Amino acid sequence: MEITRVLDAALRKAAAVWITSPGHEPRLVHSHWRADSLWVISGGTEPTVPGLTDGAQVTVTVRSPSTHSHLIDAQAVAHLTEPDDETAQALKTARLNTKPSWDAVYRLEFSS
Fold it and tell me: Binning pLDDT at 50, 70 and 90, where does residue 32 land?
């Protein structure tokens, strides 16, 4: 199965993923899947992801939405960005129990 199809199916239901940047331990971060990119927040009231910088190559680990077991590891490039209003609202809405604030938003683009 093509990686983008697997990612699309899993990330539509996932509210969080594990991000690993070179030389650092994986960190669980809240995310939003949109337009074949994964949007993640870092810092502020959210976990900081060491090594996550503009242009960083990272590994995204996705767990199965139904069994919570390991589903896939995918390589991505992080792009520091300013989210549009719709994406910012989706990132806030995903955090049902808190009022999130963040220092940075990254759009992760996956290699095919």
Answer: confident
Residue 15 has pLDDT above 80, yes or no: no
**Confidence at residue 1, expressed as pLDDT on a 0 to 100 scale:** 42
Residue 88: both structure tokens together: 């910012």
* CA-based nearest residue to 83, from 71, 92, 75: 92
Spatial distance between the Cα atoms of 99 and 34, rounded to a whole number of angstroms: 21
3-state secondary structure of 16: strand
Q: Can you give the pTM of this predicted structure?
A: 0.84
Q: Give the domain CATH number at 15.
A: 2.30.110.10
Burial track 69-82 (b if 16+ CB lie within 10 A, e otherwise)? eebeebebebeeee
